[in-house]
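One record is kept unedited as follows:
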Amino acid sequence: MSTLRKNFAIAIMIAMGGAMAHAETKPAAKDIVIVHGALVDGSGWRAVYDILTKDGFHVTIVQEPLTGLAEDVDATKRVIDQQTGPVVLVGHSYGGSVITEAGVDPKVSALVYVAALQPDTGEASGQLMSKFAAPNNAMRAAKNRATPDKYFFIPPAKFRETYAADVPAPEAQFMADSEQQLAERAMDAPISAAAWRTKPSYAILTTQDHVISPELQRWMYERSGAKITEVGASHAVFVSQPDAVARVIEAAAK
């Protein structure tokens, strides 16, 4: 082999070795931040938390006040700020709108939408909900049950059939009796940025959902190019099928 060809081959090997080293040292996300949806709090994510923690992830659950989109985004940003490495940001239901805006943070490497809203810049959560009505018009019913100061809730007697049909009755009753109401203004506020436009997104589409229509979920997730996983579950998939939810989150972390 001539000296010129030998030097060229050595240069190629060095370049390839550098690229391989770079690929091998690219950090995987170990920090998972979960943003719960409307009408519940973070306690329902315990089973998912336990799976992810056992598998070596550091998991933090944001407890949003649900008083307005800006306040909920700020609560999420405070938690992201506490993380040390790449973050997978997970949002359920209305929490999808929260992570769409908060996810522009440079620490966030991927987004996971769990039966979640996925608005684009300038869109509001309520605006998206009106595109495809859920099978039992759950949010319309919730609006009809708004408090005088305009907070939505699902009547406890209707909670399981609307939100958690595949959750055992005692657990669903606890969820109904610990319901966290959502401010109407949170649904009316448009988001200012859509993180999914520049970051990879994953989505769990719940085919038995009576809160966010499966048709709406599919429309949003196909629009964004999210990697979709269909699960035959209610809106409370994080409670009824935590293994399926954890698998998608771990895929996003890789």
Observations:
- Confidence is low (pLDDT under 50) at residues 8-26.
- Residues 3-25 form the longest helix (23 residues).
- The chain has twelve helices and eight strands.
